[in-house]
Structure formats: C-alpha cells, structure tokens
Amino acid sequence: MDTPTKTLTFETRLDLIHEQDAALCQYAELWNQVKFRWFANLQKPKAQQLNRTQFMHEMGMPFSYRVFQGVRQSIKGLIQSYQTNRNNRLVTLDVKIKQLEKTLNKLEKRCDHVAEKGCPQQAKQLRNRLRQKEVKLRRWQQKQAALVAEKQENKTPICFGGRKLLKERQTLRTNEGIRDWQCRWHEARHREFLLVGSHDESWGCQNAQLSPSEQEDAYQLKLLVPHQLRATFGTTIHIDRLQFKHGKATIAQAVWQNQVKKHDKSIKGQSLSFRFKRDKKGWRLLVSVEVAGPTEQAEWIDAGQGVIGVDVNPDHLAVVELDRNGNPLQHRTFDLPLHYKNDAQRAAIIGDAVRDLMDFAAQQGKAVVIEKLDFQQKKRQYQKQDHPQYARMLNAFAYGKIKDLIETQSIKRGIRLYHVNPAYTSLLGRMKYRDRHGFSDHHAAALVIGRRHYGFKEKPPKQLIGINAKGTVKTEHPPVRMALGDFQYYTKLQRWYEPLEKSLDFLSGWRHFRCVNRVSYSVEARLGGRPGMNPDLIQESTPLLSAHPAL
C-alpha cells in the first residue's frame, strides 16, 4: 500500500525593518499585477489565450519560471474554489426550490379550503403568505438560472479585493473618503504573493530558502528579489529569527532533509512553498510542507484487529468500534456544537472532536473508516430534513473541514484511514442494527460503514415487526431479493421502506426487529425501555408479541 501524503501549512509572524517591509510591498504589487493579467488572459476564448512564453514576453519577463508557477497555482486554486462553491450553491438552491414548491402546493390547497369554508380574513392572510413565497421562489429561480448560465459559459467572475469593498465605493461622495477607499482597495488587492518550491531545488525552493539559524529553534530566510526591484533593494533580502509556534518537528525535518541533500545527491529533498500575507499587524509567513506517514508498514495502526467506523453528521461524529468479524464492541459520540459559532470557534470545536476521535482510535489500536463522500452529496442527504432548527445546524456544517482534519491527523499519528462507498448505509443501519443493538440511526450507519470495509454483504431482514400506538403488531416482508451487491435492489428497498416507516405512528418512532433467530431479550425489556410508553399499553401489547409466530 502506498504511503499517503498531506500538505500542511504552518504560520509565523515576520519582524521586519522599514526597508524589508517596503521591499515585500513592492514585490507583492509586481506579483499581483502579473496575477491579474494572467487571470484576464484565461478568461478569453481558448483560441485567443496566450501560452506562458507569449504571456511573459508580452509582460516584459518580470519573473522567472519558478515565480510564475506561483502565479499559476494561485489562479488555479481561486478558479477551482469558485467553481466548487458554485456547485454547492446550485445544490442548495435546487433543494430549496423543490421544498418551496411543495410548500406552495400545500398553501394553495389550504387557501382554497379556507375560502370554501367562508373565512375571508384567514383566506386573506394565507394569500399574502402565498404571494411572499412566490416572490421568494422567483428570486431563487433567477439565481439558479444565472448560475447555470454562468457555468455553461465557463465564466469565473472573481473580484480581486472583495465585492464588499468594491460596493462601498458607490456610497462615497467626498474626495477624502474616495482617497481613503483607494488606499484600502489597493492594499486589499496587493497584500500577498506565493512562491512555490520543488524537491530538486536548493533548500526546497529556488526563490525563498529557509535554513537553520545560530539561535536554537530558529531559522533564517533568504528571499531572492525580482530583477525590476534589484536596483532599489539589492539581490536578496535576509530575514532572521524566524520561529514557528506549531509544526516545529515537521519544519525541522524538512530543513534537515534539504541540508543533507546538498552533500548527498542521492537523498530526495523536501519541497517548501512560501506565502507572504499582509494584514493590519504586518506580514505573516505561511510555509507549506508535504508530510508523509510512516514509511514502514509495521509502524502503521492498521485494520488487522478491527476498525473504527465513523459517520459524520452536522452536529456530532457517530463512532462504533468493530472487531475483525464485523461485530460492534462499543460506540461513542463526539459532539460538534457548531451553530452560533464563528469560523475560529468552529475550527477549534472540529479540531477537538477529531483529536478525541484519533485518541480513541490510537487507544484501541485500530484503523478508521469513513465515507467516501463529497460535500454536495452529504449536504443533499441532510437537506431533506424540513425543519428550521435542522436547517440552521446544516448551515454551519463543515463536512469538508472535518474530513480534511481526519485525513491530516491519521497521517500524523500513523493511523490507517479507509474510505468506503456510503450508499444506503443509513437505510441498512436502520433496518438491521438500530434496535438489534440499541443504536441510534447514525451509530447504526457507522456500524455498516465499518462492516463495508471488510466486504460483508448486508442482507435485509427477512421480515420486519412493528408496533403502532394502539399496540397492534404488524409484520412486513421486504420485496424479493435481487443479486447481492446490486444497488438497484437497495433503491427499490428504500422506496418500499420509507413509506412503511412513516405509516406506523409509534410514540418514540417505529421500531423493527430482525426475526431470523429468536431474540435473546424479553418483550418486557424491549417495550419497557421506550420513553413515553403507557404501562397499560405495554401490558396489553406483551401478549400480542408473545403469541406472534415470528417470536
């Protein structure tokens, strides 16, 4: 198995003198001018776009090839980020429009019913509410049509500097306010630049070389100045006393590897990328390092003795520990209270939950299994829940952040991470394992995720037993099976199961049991543990269950 890798970024604050600060500002301005021109070139039709050589010749060769690679990577990342966000917005709008159309149909029927009953005041209120929702529907449909047209035309309208600051210009009337805005606009558009490295370059990067300093746990940075600025600032800029609060061991390993490579050419160096970013306090330096897991197979915590199945949800991580035969041993819940939190608080909460998850996996000595799912599919899965509180919770859902942190921590700690197909894990968990093991829907899904890693075939129960609020026992048989592993069968099974689950109005939710073998627990315990169940109803239902032929 190949060793997985992950790019990690560590940050430090630069302590600069006035000349160094001015040099970085001039460097950022020149770099961003090339960036804007290259982005404008990519927005042209394919036949009119210039290649790198033609473009650099037209710009007067301001940068070397390696510096220009940073420009290309920065633009590529911006375009991919915008396109991903646009796809997510289309998914969200599609679900919202469908839900609003259902609500409109219900309101129209209710309005007609109220009008027939002769309640003019109530009918007027319903018509006003109906008109408001129709306006909202048209607005969402217009947004959806605009995004679809933009996607078909392959446009990427990115505003360098921010749309919020750009719109602020329209509200200014005085010359002093306009001049102040122009300064802030220029600073927002020229506040960062990126220098990418390669493992075959000196010290991991040709244009910014990070090397050890005389001071302990400190480094010095030698920055190569572009040709246009050398007459003013010289050939290089030396920045000393760089210290990193986080990632000290990772950066020290990368610098040592590049230092050894200078004497032994057979050793592969470590590429380092540097992003310089200016904020209100000054310049920050972000160093990106590609980190790999343990090189030896024996150093990894693998799935030989079982796995940890994880189901990622908007408000918690549902975790189930399994043995090698797919049997659950214990289950945990790691909460994610992300609602009413800012970005920094959400990042801290997610980091703590993932850390606790990895501590649990390391303590048990088992690998982790998660869903192979992107954000759009995950959000579409949960947007079917039509509830305002759930909608607010979903708005704060950071599935991509959770997944990235799990992948990063697994590499750092040497814990194998596996991805499985998430299709119908929730359905099979509810039908087979929810009541059998006393799990929630999410823990049952985590159990199916862990079992799917070992390739276990999940056969639906031969018959399901449900008890409605009146104490009536109902037995249902799933449709005839098709070939195992054929997900078309699970699609049909889901269409059969979901209406059945809603039809039995059990007080704490419909419960079902697999009745292939005799259950090991009593009927009284099965019913007595349900919150809100009437004792008289338990007493009346017990003989019905005991007399049932399936039991």
UniProtKB/TrEMBL annotation:
Residues 90-150 form a coiled coil. One of its GO terms (molecular function) is DNA binding. InterPro entries: Cas12f1-like_TNB. Keywords: Coiled coil, DNA-binding. NCBIfam families: IS200/IS605 family accessory protein TnpB-like domain. This is IS607 family transposase OrfB. It comes from Oleiphilus messinensis. The lineage of its organism: Bacteria, Pseudomonadati, Pseudomonadota, Gammaproteobacteria, Oceanospirillales.
